[in-house]
Design goal:
Helix content is 26%, strand content 24%. It is of the alpha/beta class and 226 residues long. The longest helix is centred in the middle third of the chain and has 13 residues, at 137-149.
């Protein structure tokens, strides 16, 4: 557990989380939409710092990134939690876990552990993936800074709902990203519990910041195929 980045204190021991575009206002002892950021005595904490639920060496094309170090391996990690509630999520058992249960599962990792495993596996990059990396930004950021010192690239596989301030914060250490552009605004509201506008703005901003961007859309017949 670590005190969260990007929040402000409000009256009555409430806090406002500014990590993503939900901008949750969180009461005492409550959690945000992601299920992994909790208000304790007027301070916001990340409950998933160093709690890695999945880790694996993947081909970079699995992210999917097809034009960023093609043919290379990427050490991939995630924690539980997500700021979306996509009804078609293939990783729902870990992305939605904190919304169903109170505990936070995962193996204890330090940023040094993550970078060490990436190097041992001959990986050219570390991917923050499987769930939404925005919700474990504090841990991802520490890993990213250390990875760059060791000459390892950083990749996010993201829904693109991160706040602008948080995106600019990680940008110096983010080398590539695949953004999942899911559909139109109706699809986002009905299926994901979000809005499309912040995602579109972030795709443009990522490009302006010089980060390699690839965009994926999963086609679901009768929902986003028109």
């Amino acid at each position: 557990m670590k005190e969260a980045f990007f929040y402000e204190k409000l009256e009555d021991n409430k806090v406002k989380c500014n990590l993503c575009n939900h901008h949750c206002i969180i009461s005492q002892d409550a959690r945000g939409i992601c299920g992994v950021r909790e208000n304790r005595d007027g301070k916001l904490y990340s409950l998933v710092y160093g709690k890695v639920i999945a880790y694996h060496i993947d081909p970079i094309e699995k992210k999917p990134l097809f034009h960023f170090y093609p043919g290379s391996a990427s050490y991939s990690i995630s924690t539980v939690g997500c700021n979306f509630r996509c009804l078609h999520c293939q990783n729902y058992t870990i992305s939605q876990y904190p919304k169903l249960y109170k505990d936070i599962p995962g193996e204890d990792f330090t940023p040094e552990d993550v970078v060490k495993e990436a190097r041992a596996g001959g990986c050219q990059s570390i991917s923050y993936t499987y769930t939404e990396p925005t919700i474990f930004l504090e841990f991802a950021y520490d890993c990213m800074v250390l990875a760059h010192k060791e000459g390892i690239k950083n990749v996010w596989v993201s829904n693109g709902y991160i706040s602008e301030s948080a995106l600019r914060f990680i940008a110096p250490y983010l080398d590539a990203i695949n953004v999942d552009l899911k559909g139109d605004d109706e699809f986002y509201k009905k299926i994901c519990g979000a809005r499309v506008e912040p995602v579109m703005k972030n795709i443009k901003l990522l490009h302006e910041l010089g980060i390699w961007v690839e965009v994926t859309t999963l086609i679901i017949p009768e929902l986003n195929d028109s």
